[in-house]
Amino acid sequence: MTRISLTVNGRPYQGEVEPRTLLVTFLRDHLHLTGTHIGCDTSQCGACVVHLDGISVKACTVLALQADGATVTTIEGLAQDATLHPLQEGFWAEHGLQCGFCTPGMIMSTFDLLQQNPDPSDEEIRHALEGNLCRCTGYENIVRAVRYAAQQMQSNQNA
Amino acid sequence: MDPATTYTLIVNGRPCEVAVTPKTTLMQVLREQLHLTGTKDGCSTGHCGSCMVLKDGEPVRSCLVPMRRADNATITTIEGVRQPDGSLHPVQQAYLDQGATQCGFCTPGFIMSSIALLAQKPEPTLEEIYAAHRWNVCRCTGYNAIIRAVQQVAGQPLPPPPPVKAPLQVVSQYVPRPDGEAKVDGTGRYAADLFVEGMLHAKTLRSSEAHARIVQIDVTAARNLPGVVAVLTADDIPGRKDCGVHEIDWPVLCYDKVRYVGDALALVIAESEAVAEAALGLIDVTYEPLPLVTGPKEAAAPGAPQIHEGRAQGNVLAHYNLELGDVEAGFVAADLIVEREYRTQTVEHAFIEPEAGLAAPDANGRITVYGGGQIPFNDRKQIAATLNLPEERIRVVNCLIGGAFGGKEDVSVQILAALGAQATGRPVKMVFSREESLRVHPKRHATIIRMKTGAKHDGTLVAHEVEIYGDGGAYASLSGHVMLRATTHAAGPYEVANARVNTYAMYTNNVPSGAFRGFGVTQSGFAMECQLDVLAEELGLAPLEIRRKNILAYGKQTLAGQVLTESCGLGECLELVAAEVARRPVVASDGDKRRAWGLACAYKNTGYGSGAYDAAGAEVELFADGRAIVRAGAAEIGQGLPTVLAQIAAEELGVPYNQVEVLLADTDLTPDGQATTASRQTYVTGNAVRHACQELRTLLRGTAAEMLDAAPDSLIFAEGCVRSSTSSAPLSEVVRVARHEGRTPKVAYQYVAPKVAQYQHVAFGFAAQAVLVEVDIKTGETRVLDVIAASDVGRAINPLGLQGQIEGSISMGLGMALQENFIMEAGQVKTDTLHKCKLPQINQTPNVTLFFVEDETQEGPYGAKGVGELNSIPTAPAIINAIYNATGIRCYSLPAHKTWLKAALAATPCP
């Protein structure tokens, strides 16, 4: 067992993990942050996307040990003081979710996209979501949701 | 913390290894590591014996055994005592047969002690039974049934059970409890037995001051302790900051001031109980002490510090003034007037299961609260208000409840655990330590009762003036209702034409007072029964004569002016007791021993009364395999409600008793049954089940009539069949066909009791008791040898349960008369362990003879009325009267403890 320290959603955590423990396992089973989902264990679905030091990663491809000393943000850390992030609002308002299982990963991936590219085209949104699978929506409303969020974030910035 | 060591145990035949500190107790290992929760934790201090297990064949209280003394031990717990073929151990079976398990919390510990005894001594004497169970405490049964259970296994002769008037197929038959098996084999789950993945533990910081303004609560250090997930104060409460069953005056977490030492200041939620406990010590509270109010008279004094500021009535929590006839004229007409002052003490319920609960957010964001409250729907209402959620977002589910007696009517752990679950989004478990339980929950009111009574030479009561001061403590709880009942029953079960009662419930800085079996009638009834003996002596009458002269009977009226027209069997009770006493001559003086009988009567209302909305719902459903289920929102606290409801459903539907399942107290699945209080559930929920079954029969008659080609009204439901005069079909088949037709055989019925006038009631239970005491005039010690108890219960639906209710009630009365006293000094709790409660122990069990009088009440189910509280009322005054008859010393201030009596006898020696 190895001791790790990391910051998750702004709170410091410590834990004892085996070297082979995945970050997603640590988040879900040790910290009970179950908003990060496991859909495949093989890095196909993207339901487990979180941010590691600000960059989106599939938490099932990262060892918990690799996150030692890092800052992690999960879907639970996105809303500020009970106000939804524009992306969360967008997925809701534009029907970007149905069963909701892929949604946290979708949001965390597109969050990263909007940080790098605040005004993406539909093509760029689709490209950014190549690592995330959705079986319900057909992606159309997910693209609308991301556009909605981009507009909201820009108008918030201009305001 | 000490480092963990690995220990090896063989538990119920299976080897296991645990890694714990050497000081970890065997009980903790069994419960928390191995989840063998049949071993109960009632006090953690060795005073209750609920954690008794066999260690290498010897009975030990596992809470007193550190693991360093248990390494390599062979342990047998309650889960390991079934026979190899899976059937119950004879001791378990005997506990079921004799009604020796009620709430069931002490039962595993008792059974382990009994098994150890019978292994050593297959035919134990009574003294040996006492010795073997000296470390076990039971608060429900009064021990009589436990002794009978041991004697049954030993093959010793048992007294025949009290006869009942008219047994039906199931009603009025001796049947085992539906929940009995789970109580004798350790599988029954109480709230503290729940373990949920990922759960947190909550602890509350209690006030060190009995009355103070809160200047500051600094929780910074506690929040920073590793393992602490949240520390909540009043500022973190999203909704209503105060709670209460009726009056909302009790802060969930205090914000401006503290009013007693049980007040909650902060709630710590942490990964373990140990961390939560450690965090409590890091919270810094700055108080500005305020002057104390330590008693009801002090609270009423001019200039007394006000406990709830801004109340127009000051410290007066409730005041009742009952007037009947012309009391002044009554005293003028009296030939003799006596005036005395009586005092009753604060009494602790001492249910053996401390308050426990677990609140868990559901998958859909609702919060489910598992607990053990007497009013689950009211708990839900209070939790929802404090969490600022609609009531439907909260589900309250009762686990088995390890005794309550009125002490679990107020919401306690449930609301705090729910707050924790809401704040953390995780399951939160909370269990009060015994010390916390004693410190926090409401008690029986201490009272000061001034009674002036006028009588004619022949003993007829003509005037009665009573003033009652009750110590309500810091918050209202049920004080208003309790003191109302003290008022309406202030003349006991006797007619007095002219009366005045003034009752004051006062706020003080003591632990709040609230509901407790007897509910105010215990106190005023005690005073009245003593007063009658005082009067009788001065008039030269026998105690029996003055009672015969005045008891309530058909055509007589209560203090509230209610004329009794039915179901009043007190006269028969009194004569049964008198005749039995006459059959038992007593040697009054024998060395240092003085013996005498004492007499007392009582009556106790069934239901809320006084015009309150008194209702209960029940739902009954039949399944195609022939089973029935009763779903009712009422709480079972050990009294045996599931037995009664299953009996009624079985009787009405013709389903075998053991094919009826009873689901109680789940706010999602059962209709509201209101409170388990006021000896009301057999009456109200019993009626709801009866009516639901009748409607269910009507629903099925159509289907059955077609199947049998008979007139619907001619069909009879009996013995698992529906019968016409010529043919018959199994009920299961009728149910199957009805379901196929789309007629679901499920009926919910809301029973509403008849509304009555102010101070009046739908029915009363009546009791007469004679008690034989033996006082040692050298030591002052009083032993209660015999109790003869006759009770008019309307109908003995569940005779085994009824017997248990009466025997347990007598035990509580005995404790209150002779030894129990919850002591507070300057607002600080001195009675802070179960041992200090001085509960009656098994070697104090009197020989009890019962008579059931069944003077039916028309509206009750099969004529039944309430029995849960009735017999706890007359025992204490009967004992006090008996002590007077034996020694010439009268106790005016309970308890008649041996040190007091010894001193009194030294001052006034008896011949």
Q: What fold name goes in the CATH topology slot of the largest domain in chain A? A: Ubiquitin-like (UB roll)
Main beta sheet of chain B, described?
A: 7 strands, mixed
Q: Distance between the terminal alpha carbons of chain A, to the nearest Å?
A: 50 Å
Q: pLDDT below 50 for ≥5 consecutive residues: which ranges of chain A?
A: none
Radius of gyration of chain A: 16 Å
Name the quaternary structure: heterodimer
- Gross CATH architecture of the largest domain in chain A: Roll
Summarize the structure.
The complex is a heterodimer of chains A (159) and B (911). By secondary structure, chain A is of the alpha+beta class.
Any key phrases for this structure?
heterodimer, A: 159 residues, alpha+beta, Ubiquitin-like (UB roll), DNA polymerase, domain 1, 2 domains, five-stranded mixed β-sheet, B: 911 residues, Aldehyde Oxidoreductase, domain 3, Aldehyde Oxidoreductase, domain 4, 4 domains, 28% helix, globular
Overview of this protein structure:
The complex is a heterodimer of chains A (159) and B (911). Chain A has 159 residues and is an alpha+beta fold. Chain A folds into 2 domains: 2-77, Beta-grasp domain (Ubiquitin-like (UB roll), Roll); 86-158, Orthogonal Bundle (DNA polymerase, domain 1). Chain A is built from 5 helices and 5 strands; from the N terminus they run ββαβββαααα. The longest helix of chain A has 19 residues, at 140-158. The mean pLDDT of chain A is 95. By secondary structure, chain B is of the alpha+beta class. In chain B, the strands form 9 sheets. Chain B has a 7-stranded mixed β-sheet with strand order 8-12-6-19-16-17-18, with helices on both faces. Chain B starts with a strand and ends with a helix. The radius of gyration of chain B is 27 Å and the shape is globular. Chain B is built from 23 helices and 36 strands. Classes of the chains: A alpha+beta (159), B alpha+beta (911). The chains hardly touch. Chain A: One of its GO terms (molecular function) is 2 iron, 2 sulfur cluster binding. Chain A: Residues 2-78 form the 2Fe-2S ferredoxin-type domain. Chain A: Keywords: 2Fe-2S, Iron, Iron-sulfur, Metal-binding, Oxidoreductase.
